[in-house]
Amino acid sequence: MGLKEDLINAYKSVGVLDANIIYIYSDFRTFGRQLEKFPNRQAFFQTFIDPFLERDKTIILTTFTYTTSGDFNTLTTPTKFGALNKWVLKQEDVLRSEHPLFSYAGLGTQAEFLTDIGHSAFGRDSIFDRLSEKNAAFLYLGRPISNGNTLIHYIEHLSGATYRIHKTFPTNVYRGKEFIGTHYSAFVRRRDIIGETFEFQFSEAAQLLRKKGIIHQVGSEKNFTNISCLNYDHTVDFLFELFSKDPTIFIKSNFI
């Protein structure tokens, strides 16, 4: 069998093909070794994505730029993230959300839900808020789950984490020549406490998600060959529960 058939079987095994919207995290340090078998990068990345688009699914990926000032253009500002993230921005039918720090790109029948996003990166009407009850799932391709998930900032925001503050940024947002808006906000780490960096950590939460049975996986995270699926709503509910029991579960600190 070829890579595409192997991927489809793996996707079926972990249940991600049952979702309508797939939020992808990827690391191609191992999968990328198969790139030489393909005529170009386009064909390689399509092999991973087409099984979803061919089934009328929608995929979304982070295209963060952390543009805290100046201009951010959804059509031209490049992402600082990985190979698949950069690839998706070059696709003809891609749609991209407008937040100048934390933007997302999407392909598929429901990708339009990314546009006209709320001004808060992690609050109400954010990407994470909109994914609720949409039959969404997280998919990790070759990326260890313990490396993190931006969802935790949504949990922190709505739970009122005291180690973060709301900050607004004067970046001007454009879609091509069209001015969209400014003063988008994010829930960012505090910098006013000596000795505290509030660096995030997700390893404990990942272990508990696995113990809870929310993670469905084939392959090896150690070898960066894992294909891991987590139901979105189940993950959100469980992380809220974890934070309510331990407000430091997402940081490398015992700060209260």
Return residue spans where pLDDT drops below 50 for at least 5 consecutive residues: none
* Helix segment tally: 7
What is the number of independent domains? 1
From the alpha-carbon coordinates, what is the Rg to the nearest angstrom? Answer: 18 Å
Largest sheet: 7 strands, mixed
Any chance you could write out the topology, listing elements then pairs?
Layout: H1 3-14, E1 21-26, H2 41-53, E2 58-62, E3 71-73, H3 83-89, E4 95-96, E5 104-108, H4 127-131, E6 136-141, H5 151-159, E7 164-175, E8 178-189, H6 203-212, E9 215-218, E10 227-231, H7 232-245
Parallel strand pairs: 1-2, 1-6, 3-7
Antiparallel strand pairs: 2-5, 4-5, 6-10, 7-8, 9-10
Q: Could you explain how this protein is built, in words?
A:
This protein is an alpha/beta fold and 256 residues long. 27% of the residues lie in helices and 23% in strands. It has one domain (3-245). The chain has helices at residues 3-14, 41-53, 83-89, 127-131, 151-159, 203-212, 232-245, and strands at 21-26, 58-62, 71-73, 95-96, 104-108, 136-141, 164-175, 178-189, 215-218, 227-231. The strands form two sheets. It has a seven-stranded mixed β-sheet with strand order 4-5-2-1-6-10-9. A three-stranded mixed β-sheet has the order 3-7-8. The longest helix is centred in the C-terminal third of the chain and has 14 residues, at 232-245.
What is the compact description of this entry?
By secondary structure, the protein is of the alpha/beta class.
Supply the key terms.
alpha/beta; single chain; 23% strand; seven-stranded mixed β-sheet; three-stranded mixed β-sheet
